[in-house]
Amino acid sequence: MIFLVNHSNLNQARAHREIHDFLASRVDKPDSPVLGVKYHPSMSDREEVRAEIDVPRFVGDTSYDTERAELQVGFEMGPSLDFDHYRIGWVESERELMVGWHQDETHPELGRCHFQMEYEGDCLQRTEAEYRDDHPLNILGKRLDALPEILRSLSDGVSEVSESLVQ
Questions:
Q1: pLDDT tens-digit readout, 106-127
Q2: CA-to-CA distance for 44 and 23, rounded, in angstroms?
Q3: Which of 27, 44, 104, 151 lies most in the core, judged by the most C-beta atoms within 10 Å?
């Protein structure tokens, strides 16, 4: 599924609705790792979309250390921004692990987009990642495609993710 960027018809609320609907359509499907989807902090104030994920099913490894994770997705767009901002985060509370991509202006030395990994409250890695000027669902799809291999690379212990995996 390919979506073309049309910023005149896309805003934060619509992007979050499309992401919510995309993930919600996978709940209760056979072999789907998506267990539930919600808006955060609320239905009326949709700052991001969160999904509960069955980790072994998502990663494709039944021996993976954690059973559940939360996928957190938020986009910010508008004429006041030079480019669309987003945060796509994977949070494993049991392991105190967070990995994800941030496309924003918080670390200009890393360009417009970076990958970040935090473990036990410490930032272990911040690496430049590919900037994407694309439809939010295309960006989410690309990042979700990369996540299982990234997570499998961390299953023997948290270290550093190869830069080739985070692009």
A1: 999 999 999 999 999 999 999 9
A2: 18
A3: 151
